[in-house]
């Protein structure tokens, strides 16, 4: 007997909602994380994106059901397995998407537009663009960029061009790593994604390396140009003693952690374990610790009283 609520949860893929935490980036880096009204706005934006992403995942599963049955992991998805009918899944996709758009409309007109753009792009992706090599990576990456700037729009925050460069680089790094891992299991599972037949492992290796380098370098540029000034008296005192002891770009201390995180994730990619970035992020201890340390450092630097926003 089919457990319908459980199957609905499975097809909604709540594990993938971790990607939507990107909406909180603007809240954190704009210095407004502890402003209650802003925080509530972003939480509702997060809910909206969780609904729309689930709606697009369901549509994608409907379109991919035939190929998913050939995949060693995806064949257990409800539609591919046959535990949910296509008409019912389509109804759930429509319900999730419309609910998301309703919430988005209540939050902010531009946020509504971004959610709508995300939805349209994902629908077109599911209908055919996912079959085009390179284009599929760009579309996957665009989803992360839209999330970050949707979070900025809903609280009317400004994000610098350096942060945009960082977001784009990381998004392309994650997307190319996902395709690299999928390609590695292709000989065992058959053709489960048409675009994969147009990729060579050497090409995806170069993408991963290129975007991995771009990720830590763009973060470094962001920390150099956008770090808030130090305010603790001890550092101001040291700056008076010698220019060599001037500390005014505090976020740069996070660069080694970012480099380690990228190196760790690249090692997982070449071990063919990165097909699901959100799962790796939540299960790999070293990567989880690196992300946790990075977040703690960023929050402490921005909100711990050792620097100030100007």
Automatic annotation (TrEMBL):
Xref: InterPro entries: Prenyltransferase_related (IPR050475), UbiA_prenyltransferase (IPR000537), UbiA_sf (IPR044878)
Chief location of this protein within or outside the cell: membrane
Key words, A-Z: Membrane, Transmembrane, Transmembrane helix
Highest taxon, organism lineage: Bacteria
Membrane-protein topology: Multi-pass membrane protein
Compartments, record wording: Membrane
Pfam families documented for this protein: UbiA (PF01040)
Membrane-spanning segments: 21-39, 45-63, 84-104, 110-128, 161-177, 245-265, 285-306
Gene Ontology CC, one term: membrane
GO MF: transferase activity, transferring alkyl or aryl (other than methyl) groups
Protein name: Decaprenyl-phosphate phosphoribosyltransferase
Organism: Candidatus Woesebacteria bacterium RBG_16_42_24
């Amino acid at each position: 007997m089919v457990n319908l609520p459980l199957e609905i949860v499975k097809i909604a893929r709540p594990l993938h909602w971790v990607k939507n935490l990107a909406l909180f980036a603007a809240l954190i880096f704009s210095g407004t994380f502890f402003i209650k009204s802003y925080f509530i706005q972003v939480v509702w934006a997060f809910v909206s994106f969780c609904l729309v992403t689930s709606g697009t995942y369901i549509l994608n599963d409907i379109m991919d059901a035939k190929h998913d049955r050939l995949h060693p992991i995806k064949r257990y998805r409800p539609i591919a397995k046959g535990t949910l009918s296509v008409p019912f899944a389509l109804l759930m996709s429509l319900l999730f998407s419309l609910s998301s758009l309703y919430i988005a409309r209540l939050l902010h007109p531009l946020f509504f537009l971004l959610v709508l753009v995300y939805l349209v792009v994902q629908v077109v992706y599911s209908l055919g663009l996912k079959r085009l090599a390179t284009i599929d990576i760009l579309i996957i990456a665009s989803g992360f960029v839209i999330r970050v700037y949707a979070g900025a729009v809903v609280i009317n925050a400004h994000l610098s061009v350096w942060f945009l460069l960082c977001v784009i680089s990381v998004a392309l790094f994650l997307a190319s790593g996902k395709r690299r891992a999928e390609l590695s299991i292709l000989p065992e599972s058959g053709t489960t994604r048409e675009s994969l037949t147009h990729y060579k492992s050497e090409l995806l290796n170069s993408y991963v390396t290129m975007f991995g380098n771009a990720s830590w370098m763009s973060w470094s540029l962001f920390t150099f140009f956008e770090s808030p000034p130090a305010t603790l008296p001890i550092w101001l005192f040291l700056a008076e003693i010698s220019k060599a002891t001037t500390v005014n770009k505090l976020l740069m201390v996070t660069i080694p952690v970012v480099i380690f995180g990228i190196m760790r994730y690249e090692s997982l990619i070449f071990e063919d374990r990165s097909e699901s970035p959100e799962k790796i992020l939540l299960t790999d201890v070293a990567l989880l610790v690196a992300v946790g340390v990075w977040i703690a450092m960023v929050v402490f630097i921005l909100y711990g009283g050792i620097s100030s926003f100007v």
